[in-house]
Write a structure and sequence with these properties.
This protein has seven helices and 13 strands. Helix 4 runs antiparallel to helix 5 and helix 5 (about 170-185) packs across helix 6 (about 195-210). Strands 3, 4, 5, 8, 9, 10, 11, 12 and 13 form a nine-stranded mixed sheet that branches. Strands 1-2 form a two-stranded antiparallel sheet. It has two domains: about 1-145, no CATH class; about 145-220, no CATH class. The protein has about 220 residues and is of the alpha+beta class.
Length: about 220
């Protein structure tokens, strides 16, 4: 599903930036204290020639932080692809934007202040980057899925159906339904399509040794 959200193009199958109240996740403040880059201070240092900044920069006031970012060869901050997630902490707005993550959730879109972004406080139809479970702690949150696992399952489905001689209309609805179920956190062997799609999925799972029957045997063992 594609839409235009306050001028930004959004697809329900492509992860978008997730937005959350900074005080909501149990351990986000601790993560900021330990690993946050004071972006306002970094900007201050670009213009200030002093060696020490105790008398020219006021620390502790609402400020913007970066998590999971690093400087590139030009000195600009970019997401660190080796980090578990990357986020921008907006001090004055008390919000955090998760711009990249190994974890995703299905959420509703934000209001006009965050065009093309998803609100991590409400479940919905759009895939958004979210914080790791370890950062959320015991605070209530929407179901979290590991992005790499979900994308790999979608890739396997696509490959399995791409070269079949089935009539597209015979299984298209079920196929996209399965994609939605995967995005909602289900595993391949938990999908239950009907018709032609069911047959193709069954063959694929049998080749992978992942049929429901085999799965039950492994659980009992």
């Amino acid at each position: 599903m594609k839409t235009i959200h306050h001028g930004a193009n959004v697809s329900s199958e492509s992860p978008i930036t997730g937005v959350v109240d900074t005080t909501a996740p149990e351990y986000l403040s601790e993560e900021i204290d330990l690993h946050g880059i004071d972006f306002d201070f970094e900007e201050h240092c670009k213009e200030c020639t002093k060696e020490f900044h105790a008398d020219c920069y006021e620390a502790g006031s609402p400020t913007n932080y970066l998590l999971g970012y690093k400087k590139d060869i030009k000195g600009d901050f970019v997401p660190d692809l080796d980090a578990e997630f990357s986020a921008i902490v907006n001090g004055n707005e008390n919000t955090t934007q998760v711009t990249r993550s190994k974890w995703v959730s299905k959420v509703m879109l934000c209001g006009p202040c965050y065009p093309g972004q998803g609100y991590l406080g409400n479940s919905g139809d759009y895939l958004a980057y979210t914080l790791p479970p370890s950062i959320w702690g015991h605070h209530d949150h929407i179901q979290i899925n590991e992005l790499s696992v979900t994308l790999e399952s979608i890739k396997e489905l696509y490959i399995a159906f791409f070269d079949t001689d089935l009539n597209t209309l015979d299984f298209a609805a079920d196929f996209f339904y399965m994609i939605g179920e995967l995005l909602n956190g289900k595993k391949l062997n938990e999908l239950t399509p009907t018709g032609s799609a069911a047959g193709t999925l069954k063959i694929m799972l049998e080749n992978k040794g992942m049929t429901t029957k085999e799965n039950k045997k492994s659980v009992r063992a």
